[in-house]
Design goal:
Layout (H helix, E strand, L loop, with lengths): L1 H18 L1 E7 L6 H16 L3 E7 L6 H12 L5 E5 L5 H5 L11 E17 L6 H8 L5 E6 L4 H12 L6 E6 L2 H9 L5 E5 L8 E6 L27 E9 L3 H14 L3 H8 L4 E2 L4 H19 L2
Parallel strand pairs: 1-2, 1-3, 5-6, 5-7
Antiparallel strand pairs: 3-9, 4-7, 4-8, 4-9, 4-10
């Protein structure tokens, strides 16, 4: 009798768990990145504490987040509940890169809660260049200098524009486009390019050497403390901190607001904090007003690049 009772209870719990509605969390972040791994923990924790929903991470690669952004907007307009997870780049650089049939970057996706802020780092091949002095020697040798970037730009392209102007590389720089950051790293290690500018999430890779970081001040993180800022090296405007955050389509604002108390609880998750701290990313749970201010400042930085 006890065994039958236990079986019935188990079945009831199983049915209750199955009854929870799946909520897609759609992102363009590459599954190999630390942010994506942190998101996997986030969805698991959110599912465990929310009484009605299971949160399921969905990766939509391509077009610098534009594919994921459009999918979120389309699904929301069809009545699907979901969450957007992406970067401030969707609201700054992509405003200029994707102008045909563009979605309204001021209204269609609204910030919900912050997740992290990540700076950019100028990387070189560790075996070929060991210091900023050697990098300067390379770019003043009047030989062609190869820079690697993704096919649809990003924060690295904005900062590279500053590097090119500062060191007067306009006539010797050659940009090579790759599908994603993983291909760029491989090209850098293989000597196909001389340098690139990527997220600080790649700081733990042993074959590439960080020379300059886009932070406002030098970090005290053990992996970043030896990397000078652009300002220290005389490039004052080499400052760029893309913010990752959760967003909600305008059609789902009430649904989004109902999730905020649960998101705030997960903000304190120690596993997520530890994972982000491994690459020196600042963990935050910023409110929408702070996120919007960060986007405004980032937009002011990148706009001149596209107004040539």
């Amino acid at each position: 009798m006890k065994n039958i009772f236990a079986y019935v209870l188990l079945m009831l719990f199983s049915i209750a768990a199955q009854a929870k509605e799946d909520i897609p969390v759609i992102t363009r972040f590459d599954p190999t990145t630390g942010s994506y791994q942190a998101l996997l923990i986030w969805t698991k924790e959110m599912s465990s504490i929310h009484p009605e929903y299971n949160f399921v991470l969905q990766n939509v690669l391509g077009a610098q987040g534009e594919n994921a952004d459009r999918r979120v907007i389309s699904l929301a307009r069809s009545g699907q509940k979901l969450i957007w997870f992406g970067s401030s780049v969707s609201f700054t650089n992509n405003r200029f890169l994707f102008t045909e049939n563009a979605w309204d970057r001021n209204k269609d996706i609204l910030p919900l809660k912050g997740f992290s802020i990540s700076n950019q780092i100028l990387f070189v091949n560790r075996k070929r260049i060991s210091s900023i002095e050697e990098f300067k020697k390379l770019i003043t040798s009047n030989k062609t200098v190869y820079f690697g970037s993704t096919i649809n730009g990003g924060g690295g392209d904005v900062l590279n524009d500053l590097v090119v102007k500062h060191y007067k590389l306009e006539n010797i720089i050659k940009e090579i486009k790759y599908k994603n950051a993983g291909e760029i790293v491989t090209a850098l290690v293989n000597g196909e390019i001389d340098y690139t500018i990527l997220s600080q999430g790649y700081i733990r890779l042993s074959d590439i050497n960080p020379l300059m970081i886009s932070a406002k001040k030098r970090s005290d993180h053990q992996l970043l403390s030896q990397i000078p800022t652009g300002k220290e090296l005389g490039i004052d405007k080499f400052v760029f901190g893309a913010q990752a955050f959760f967003g909600i389509p305008k059609e789902l604002q009430d649904f989004g607001k109902s999730l905020v108390p649960y998101i705030e609880r997960v903000c304190d998750n120690e596993q997520i904090k530890e994972l982000k701290s491994k690459t020196g990313q600042s963990s935050n749970c910023d409110n929408p007003d702070v996120i919007l201010q960060n986007i405004k400042e980032e937009l002011e930085l990148v706009s001149p690049m596209y107004s040539k």
